[in-house]
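Is this the right way to post structure tokens for a design question? Let me know if I should format differently. Anyway, here goes:
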């Protein structure tokens, strides 16, 4: 069979520019396009609980629920958006599933693949329909599942998600640990492929040139940070799982430290609009900063498109998380020449390198994190050792071009196999 075109659909009920899986797959678009892949995105408007009130785009209100919004171009791909209800529920996902089946269509002479960036068991019927229509379907698992604490509910949830996972032609994950969980512990029958996230090494690099040094000095000056001060940076949504409260408390413990220590929080307040848990967490964060010794030492940067500049303006990267897959922010920090401190967490990935060689691994409590930070601040040899080891590891193992090559090969294989079905 002669295939002249590979058409790829990214499918996600929302495509927020700071969403974990969405942000990671967005970074692959340009590389996929360069490799001849026709990339399209189908997304929906997010629910109130997924974003803060300030993130809500008032132009969405002009469109009827269930209608298609004008497409836009995003990094070389066409982004199609369907207007969905503000509240999650059956209607929200029914409308998005309907949009999937209307949009993702196989055309003779093409290989067509649907890459679900996130999925739910109630999408199984749509996935099966796509496969019957000769569309290859790939699932994605980006982080370790958070199963319910109730044993009965946990069993039911695992059973339903196993059905979902087995409905795909293949599933991609980003670490050997997730691969083992899916293929061996859960018993997924679909093909499971572990592809490391990859880092854009041209974008993320150390502040080792005169130009980058000048940019670092300019940004620190803009934030009121002296060159002799120490800057700890956290990158990601401000939320309980990421441990922003721990980071602030640890930073506050270091205020007797010389030189002065600053904390950069690069990322949005996650889902603060209608979710009581996030609203309470936002209040906790605000209180911790306001009652700290030096409130102006915490810098809320928000979402930015130039995170690499903030990494190069910093000295230490901290991620006190409780659950991850492979946190790309940590790999990007290594590529930027920063020493990385991680806390032990569910889903710990060996794709990050060897603990206490490429990065510092500590228990997830204030005392352990404080001790690790103080050691790096007081002992430049320790800081420099982790910085050099992390950079060397990422440069040798995590070039995003390799990841994009593997995704291209996977999509072509899955698409060709689906197209061959009669």
């Amino acid at each position: 069979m002669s295939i002249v075109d590979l058409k790829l659909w990214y499918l996600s009920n929302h495509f927020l520019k700071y969403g974990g899986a969405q942000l990671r797959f967005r970074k692959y678009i340009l590389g996929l396009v360069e490799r001849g892949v026709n990339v399209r995105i189908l997304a929906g408007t997010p629910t109130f609980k997924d974003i803060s009130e300030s993130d809500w785009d008032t132009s969405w209100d002009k469109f009827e629920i269930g209608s298609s919004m004008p497409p836009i171009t995003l990094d070389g791909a066409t982004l199609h958006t369907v207007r969905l209800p503000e509240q999650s529920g059956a209607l929200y996902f029914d409308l998005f599933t309907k949009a999937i089946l209307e949009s993702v269509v196989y055309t003779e002479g093409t290989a067509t693949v649907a890459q679900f960036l996130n999925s739910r068991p109630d999408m199984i019927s749509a996935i099966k329909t796509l496969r019957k229509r000769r569309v290859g379907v790939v699932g994605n698992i980006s982080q370790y599942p958070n199963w319910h604490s109730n044993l009965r509910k946990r069993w039911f949830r695992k059973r339903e998600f196993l059905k979902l996972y087995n409905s795909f032609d293949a599933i991609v994950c980003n670490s050997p640990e997730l691969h083992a969980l899916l293929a061996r512990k859960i018993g997924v029958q679909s093909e499971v492929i572990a592809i490391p996230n990859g880092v854009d090494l041209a974008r993320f690099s150390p502040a080792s040139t005169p130009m980058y040094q000048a940019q670092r000095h300019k940004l620190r000056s803009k934030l009121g940070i002296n060159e002799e001060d120490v800057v700890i940076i956290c990158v990601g949504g401000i939320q309980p799982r990421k441990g922003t409260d721990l980071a602030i408390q640890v930073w506050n413990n270091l205020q007797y430290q010389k030189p002065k220590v600053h904390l950069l929080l690069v990322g949005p307040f996650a889902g603060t609009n209608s979710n009581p848990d996030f609203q309470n967490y936002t209040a906790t964060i605000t209180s911790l900063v306001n009652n700290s010794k030096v409130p102006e030492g915490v810098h809320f940067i928000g979402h930015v498109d130039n995170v690499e500049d903030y990494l190069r303006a910093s000295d230490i990267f901290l991620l006190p998380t409780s659950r991850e897959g492979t946190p790309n922010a940590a790999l990007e920090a290594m590529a930027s020449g920063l020493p990385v401190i991680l806390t032990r967490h569910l889903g710990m990935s060996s794709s990050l390198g060897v603990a206490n060689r490429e990065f510092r691994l500590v228990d997830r409590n204030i005392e352990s994190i404080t001790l690790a930070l103080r050691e790096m601040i007081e002992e430049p040899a320790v800081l420099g050792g982790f910085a050099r080891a992390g950079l060397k590891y990422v440069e040798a193992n995590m070039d995003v071009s390799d990841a994009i090559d593997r995704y291209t090969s996977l999509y072509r294989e899955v698409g060709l196999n689906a197209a061959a079905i009669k």
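Format looks fine. Someone answered above. Worth noting: The first helix runs from residue 20 to 26. The radius of gyration is 22 Å.
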